UniProtKB/TrEMBL annotation, chain A:
This is Pyrimidine operon attenuation protein / uracil phosphoribosyltransferase. Keywords: Glycosyltransferase, Transferase. Residues 6-158 form the Phosphoribosyltransferase domain. PANTHER family: BIFUNCTIONAL PROTEIN PYRR. The keyword Repeat does not apply. One of its GO terms (molecular function) is glycosyltransferase activity.
From TrEMBL, chain B:
The keyword Transferase applies. Transmembrane segments: none annotated. Pathway: Pyrimidine metabolism; UMP biosynthesis via de novo pathway; (S)-dihydroorotate from bicarbonate: step 2/3. Carbamoyl phosphate binds at residues 59-60, 109, 137, 140, 265-266. This is Aspartate carbamoyltransferase. It comes from Paenimyroides ummariense.
Length: 182, 308
């Protein structure tokens, strides 16, 4: 197993600010917009973006929720490992709202497909957009593309992109490309 | 990654504490799901489940069916009264005929203790025991513990008294196993004729006096008087039973602490508990019913994930 750093802590910081600015450009004061972090790893990115919007750009209230897609995945019983659920926490209805899905890595697109189905349990959104930190292009199984992307990465299928977050599971925000993960 | 240690849920006796914790954690997620505006998830859309009830049931059958439908499984249900069992077909034949129609899981209630166990050894499907005679009723015990955990924070260290007809009760036996596994203390209380003779060998206390039992406990699980199983007179009259072993509001209010009242249903109002107790703040009876769906969703989901 070998790993290569794709984004340093400083680069991640610049990208998060750019993504926050791009969101403001489209959604103004976020009065009709909700951010939904896709569990488990999208949660951390969604929290970061939401904090930047509040603290550095003065957006007073941003609705932030977390969506677990385990029960909506299409690989139930097709995986050797059982699927483990996480907490869904959406304390608002998404009816007629502009929803922004937030996830760390966009790979095959299957998680987002599941999220598109799962979110319907909470109402009919006006529109849904997708924000990802890493877009692994050329590896999509479904016609799904991000609206906001941090960095495009070309990686082989047997390589893994790992996003680590400071205060969650690593000493610094960093993105790695891991070859031959076990 | 976590998964159940068993391929069938035949009884609490055959699972372990980790299984119970996993079922509870999964049920937490499903409880959130069934409180959404749209209460359905597509996980089990390629699974077919047969509910086979050789004995009458309303709530357990409804609860299982609802759980299966919330998970998007295909469900077929049948009751013995309308089936070929009456024509003399054996249990294995009946079930194998159903399995030939490509059924992945069987939920069965049967009046013979061990029927689910017998089936699990003889047919190729995941079996869930929904009650076998006076033996076990595992999903009921799981939802009872889940309701205690929800109301009191945890099950470990709590004192639970099971009141009434322990002799004919599968709920009692499964509850004793489940509660002890999670570190709770268990006592049984009831007329001596309705308490199995060697019950204390299971490590439970016996107290014939209801007031003393209630003073001791944190939770009282009031079993139903199963009139349909009482083939001889185990107590002089229903009125006398209600006087000796029924809980009314006056008794509840006279206790030194507030206890939680549970009942597996259906309630004989005025016998095991009076209406004002059943409808009081201390009662979690309707929570038990709601939790029943979440627990059964968790059990079915976890067992289905092991079907290859």
């Amino acid at each position: 197993m070998s790993s290569k750093i794709l984004l340093t802590s400083k680069e991640v910081d610049i990208i998060l600010h750019r993504l926050a600015c791009q969101l403001i450009e489209k959604h103004n004061d976020f009065s009709n917009t909700v951010l939904i972090g896709i569990q488990p790893r999208g949660k951390f990115l969604a929290e970061r973006i939401s904090t930047i919007l509040k603290n550095e750009y003065g957006i007073s209230s941003v609705d932030l929720g977390f969506l677990d897609i385990t029960f909506f995945r299409d690989d139930f019983r097709r995986n050797d490992k059982p699927l483990e659920a996480n907490k869904t926490q959406i304390d608002f209805l998404v009816e007629d709202k502009n929803v922004v899905f937030i996830d760390d890595v966009l790979h095959t697109g299957r998680s987002i497909r599941a999220a598109l189905t799962a979110i319907q349990s909470f109402g009919r959104p006006n529109e849904i957009e997708l924000l990802v930190l890493i877009d692994r292009r050329f590896s999509r199984h479904l016609p799904i593309q991000p609206d906001y992307r941090g960095r495009q990465v070309d990686a082989f299928n047997n390589e893994k992109v790992k996003v680590q977050w400071k205060n969650e599971d690593a000493p610094a925000d960093e993105v790695y490309l891991i070859s031959n993960p076990s | 990654m976590k998964e159940l240690s068993v391929n069938h849920l035949l009884g609490i006796k055959y699972i372990n504490k980790n299984d119970i914790n996993l079922i509870f954690e999964t049920a937490d997620h499903f409880k959130e799901v069934i409180n959404r505006p749209i209460k359905k998830v597509p996980s089990l859309r390629d699974i077919t489940i047969a509910n086979i009830f050789f004995e009458n049931s309303t709530r357990t059958k409804l609860s299982f069916e609802l759980a299966q439908k919330r998970l998007s499984a295909d469900v077929i249900s049948f009751s013995a009264a309308q089936s070929s069992v009456k024509k003399g077909e054996t249990l294995i034949d009946t079930v194998n005929n159903i399995l030939s129609m490509k059924v992945d899981m069987v939920v069965m209630r049967h009046s013979n203790p061990g029927a689910a166990h017998f089936l699990s050894r003889n047919v190729k499907a995941s079996i869930v025991n929904a009650g076998d005679g006076a033996h076990e009723h595992p999903t009921q015990a799981l939802l009872d513990s889940f309701s205690i955990r929800e109301r009191l924070g945890e099950v470990a260290g709590k004192k639970v008294v099971i009141v009434g007809d322990v002799l004919h009760s599968r709920v009692a036996l499964s509850n004793i196993f489940a509660l002890q596994m999670q570190g709770a203390e268990v006592m049984v209380c009831g007329p001596k004729t309705l308490i199995p003779r060697y019950i204390t060998d299971l490590g439970v206390k016996y107290e014939p006096n209801l007031r003393k039992a209630l003073e001791w406990c944190d939770v009282a699980n009031m079993l139903r008087v199963q009139n349909e199983r009482l083939d001889v007179n185990y107590f002089p009259s229903t009125r006398e039973y209600a006087q000796q072993y029924g809980v009314d509001k006056a008794l509840l209010d006279s206790l030194s602490k507030e206890i939680v009242i549970m009942h597996p249903g259906p309630i004989n109002r005025g016998v095991e508990i009076t209406s004002d107790v059943a409808d009081s703040q201390q009662s979690v009876i309707l929570d038990q019913v709601e939790n029943g769906v979440a627990i059964r969703m968790a059990v079915i989901y976890l067992l289905a994930s092991k079907i290859k």
